[in-house]
């Protein structure tokens, strides 16, 4: 079990209404994450929930020195 691995917005406002009932997950908080059949890698750090796949290119936030860009 991965504590604090995901979050949801039960009643999102306005333009985010389509997110109601959906969940988001931190890739680095679980043993593995997949997008379709591809195992994704998490970005560096523990704040950003980015999932890095073969078709996603960086640079990625989360590593040392990337907080302010």
Count the E strands: 6
Give the low-pLDDT segments.
none
Largest sheet: 2 strands, antiparallel
The SSE order reads EEEEEE
How far is the first residue's CA from the last residue's CA? 33 Å
The helix content, as a percent range, equals under 10%
Question: Secondary structure elements and their pairing?
Answer:
Elements: E1 6-8, E2 23-25, E3 34-35, E4 38-39, E5 41-42, E6 51-52
Antiparallel strand pairs: 1-2, 3-4, 5-6
For the structure shown, list the relevant keywords.
69 residues, mainly beta, two-stranded antiparallel sheet
In brief:
With 69 residues, this protein is mainly beta. Helix content is 0%, strand content 20%.
Structure description:
The structure is a single chain. It contains no helices and six strands. By secondary structure, it is mainly beta. The chain has a domain at 33-62. The protein is globular and about 35 Å long.
């Amino acid at each position: 079990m991965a504590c604090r691995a995901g979050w949801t917005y039960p009643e999102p406002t306005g333009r985010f209404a389509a997110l109601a009932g959906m969940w988001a997950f931190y890739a680095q908080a679980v043993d593995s994450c997949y997008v379709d059949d591809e195992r994704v890698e998490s970005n560096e750090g523990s704040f950003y929930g980015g999932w890095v796949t073969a078709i996603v290119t960086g640079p990625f936030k989360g590593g040392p020195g990337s907080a302010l860009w």
